[in-house]
UniProtKB/TrEMBL annotation:
InterPro entries: Rhodanese-like_dom (IPR001763), Rhodanese-like_dom_sf (IPR036873), Thiosulfate_sulfurtransferase (IPR051126)
Organism classification: Archaea, Methanobacteriati, Methanobacteriota, Stenosarchaea group, Halobacteria
Domain Rhodanese: 17-126, 157-261
SUPFAM superfamilies: Rhodanese/Cell cycle control phosphatase (SSF52821)
CDD domains: TST_Repeat_1 (cd01448)
One Pfam assignment: Rhodanese
Keywords: Repeat
Iron-sulfur is among the record's keywords: no
Source organism of this protein record: Natronolimnohabitans innermongolicus JCM 12255
Name recorded for this polypeptide: Rhodanese-like protein
PROSITE patterns named in the record: RHODANESE_3 (PS50206)
Length: 266
């Protein structure tokens, strides 16, 4: 697993005193305050970097809003940022995707979540002293970004791309893109450890769904939250041809894109 994308609790524990490593807790503020957090972590709740008004694309918060958020969190563009939540990493993965899209070079997902961390490492209720920065975002260009829109998805349907739907079975059966395969984002997580399954097991699991390195992969769900986790996992495994449909099925259906429905063997 590529440590430039996903890091273990032990990796982070060894760097708690490193001033260049900034830890971001994306749980609700009451969890951060009331339950405790990783030492040195700053609170950046999920809703603070998600905007339903489509400021940029999909539910991205907008360049200025994200820069202000990281300024207040004391993050500099050169920092290594590690994000975590307590939901197997799905909300933290959305932070990772957002930071990457706005040009932060080094942002990583904590393997596991707060529950996994707290089993073996110290936690605290003390809030760190935060010195605001003057963060300037540098968004990826359309050519650099993995995010794709309606037209690009329509074109990919005409190619040999594999469309990966990370939603629940009932959602998938109600409406899905033509030819899509269902891959529940939680399949990559070990229920006991709350961490990602071993790399070999992940590769086999993906291959069983037809998700292989030689295929063009297009990810979608409803509003691009769940695919964030799958996207980060694929990047950590070294998959390169992965597109992220930010508008997902919400945008697709709003633009009268073709969908199919019906029960499937799951």
């Amino acid at each position: 697993m590529d440590e430039s994308v996903v890091v273990s609790p032990d990796w982070l524990a060894a760097r708690l005193e490193d001033p260049q490593v900034r830890i971001v807790d994306v749980r609700d503020a009451w969890e951060y305050d009331g339950i405790g957090h990783v030492p040195g972590a700053v609170s950046v709740p999920f809703e603070s970097y998600r905007d339903e008004s489509d400021v940029d694309r999909g539910t991205l918060p907008g360049v200025d809003a994200f820069a202000e958020l990281l300024t207040e969190a004391g993050v500099s563009p050169s920092d290594t940022v590690v994000a975590y939540d307590d939901m197997h990493g799905v909300f933290a993965a959305r932070f990772v995707l957002t930071a990457l899209e706005y040009g932060h070079d080094d942002v990583r997902l904590l393997d596991g979540d707060y529950s996994a961390w707290s089993r073996e490492h110290e936690t605290t209720s003390d809030e760190p002293a935060i010195e605001p920065t003057d963060y300037e975002a540098d968004p990826l260009s359309r050519d650099e970004s993995p995010l794709v829109g309606f037209d690009a998805v329509a074109e990919a349907l005409e190619r040999d791309a594999i469309f990966v739907d990370t939603r629940e079975t009932h959602e998938f059966e109600e409406a899905r893109l033509p030819g899509a395969v269902r891959f529940d984002w939680r399949e990559v997580v070990d229920d006991e450890t709350r961490r990602l399954k071993p790399e070999a097991e992940l590769e086999e699991l993906l291959a069983d769904h037809g998700i292989t390195r030689d295929r063009e992969v297009v990810l979608y769900c409803n509003t691009a939250r769940r695919i964030s986790h799958t996207y980060v996992v694929l990047r950590a495994l070294g998959y390169e041809d992965v597109a992220f449909y930010e508008g997902s099925l919400t945008e697709w259906m709003a633009n009268d894109g073709e969908v199919v429905s019906g029960e499937v063997d799951d």
